[in-house]
Amino acid sequence: MITVGVGPVTPEDVLAVARDGAAVVLSPESEAAIEESRKLVEALADDVEPHYGVSTGFGALATRHIAPELRAQLQSSLVRSHAAGSGAEVEREVVRALMLLRLSTLATGRTGVRLDTARAYAALISAGITPVVREYGSLGCSGDLAPLAHCALALMGEGEVRDAAGTPMPAADALDAAGLQKVALAEKEGLALINGTDGMLGMLVIAAADLHRLLTTADVAAAMSVEALLGTDAVFAADLQALRPHPGQAASAANLKAVLDGSGIMASHRDGSCTRVQDAYSLRCAPQVHGAVRDTLAHAESVAGRELAAAVDNPVITLDGRVESNGNFHGAPVGYVLDFLAIAVADLASISERRTDRFLDVSRSNGLPPFLADDPGVDSGHMIAQYTQAAIVSELKRLAAPASVDSIPSSAMQEDHVSMGWSAARKLRRAIDGLTRVVAVEILTAARAIDLRGPLQPAAATGAVVHALRDAGVAGPGTDRYLAPEIETAVRLVADGTVVRAAESVTGPLS
Length: 511
Prior knowledge:
InterPro entries: Aromatic_Lyase (IPR001106), Fumarase/histidase_N (IPR024083), HutH (IPR005921), L-Aspartase-like (IPR008948), Phe/His_NH3-lyase_AS (IPR022313). This protein is mainly α. It has helices at residues 11-20, 28-43, 71-82, 92-107, 115-126, 145-155, 171-178, 189-194, 198-228, 238-242, 247-260, 264-267, 281-284, 286-308, 332-360, 383-399, 421-452, 460-471, 484-495, 498-507, and strands at residues 2-4, 24-26, 86-89, 130-131, 134-136, 160-162, 168-170, 316-317, 323-324. It starts with a strand and ends with a helix.
């Protein structure tokens, strides 16, 4: 059970609700804050002065004064008209994350919703009811309007949802089955339920968690490649890294040193017989590239932390009781870092693919058979696995083109500059899936090469990763076989953290 209070939820809270299905409850302090701000909204009901979203229309229609008897209809009409998404369904974890983050803003007491409405929203999350949100519909300004409107529509007992078991059904039926009442929205509530950066922020928080695991996995993969390609770990020495004091670089280099500790393969060419002075960049500069991704992620997480502490709505109820219009819903801060991460992900995948390719080229693999094939010419080995990597990396480069530099004016030019932050988040999710697959192919290929270096013994940590692959059913070197299932097994072991856990069973916790 996650308690949502007047303070920010944590990334761990977001993951617990999004991925683990945790229930939520409002804290007593947040309930008191919600009730206090609601009094301010209700006091405006007879005010002769116009108040956006309370007694006016929305967007370019904000000049229209709405009579008191039409204001409830104003809120429900807003939700229905804005629930205009199209395309494929958005993933359950994303919808649950954005709902938690919207509830978190409601809990601050800065939006003016009724307590019963906030409680009903929490109950919807706790019941595991997931509104059907569509891929397209958010411009990332005025918040993620269409995605959040589909969630608000479900609260009203309208639209489509999936129940806790994932079964699609009308929202009204799901509410009835869960013993929940549909909500008739009052003044300001429709606007408060849809005006936030919650979708793009939720995807940023989820992406950051995935990238932490993938960055450690990429360090393990790079270590396996350095080892199997007869590279050196001398360049990863702490004193060399300290000459360029980026924290991510130091962490990555320390991981590489730890994973390679005690390698018999590396010891075999430290006898003075090796004439190479330097390794290729994809080996030697792994900490610099991986570390830059780490530092970019750290910056993105600092932005996410500030956004988690925000109360995004328009108008907003200030701490001293004013109702003020503002522009805090603009998604630029989140959109930028989502785009930065997509660039970093593409480059991390690119260097991984370059290391893989070195294994397959007999002129660069330092004694390994062409394409790591059993009988080159008869067998093709991992030739086409690298093609798969290359295809993914090519797509990741396209996905690295920033969404946040684009803006298409909307709402009759009232909303004349938008962030496209939702689009940046959607492409980052696809990029992270691609990175997972690229790193998995590197690990699969490096493990085969390590076996081919026998009877030389790998480091205990890299050997543990090879054993994890073999225990999962991926056979060692041999004649060509159906490769796609082995790639998918490697992908699963990367995605569920098995690869990192195998290495850490020897090294202890890696950065």
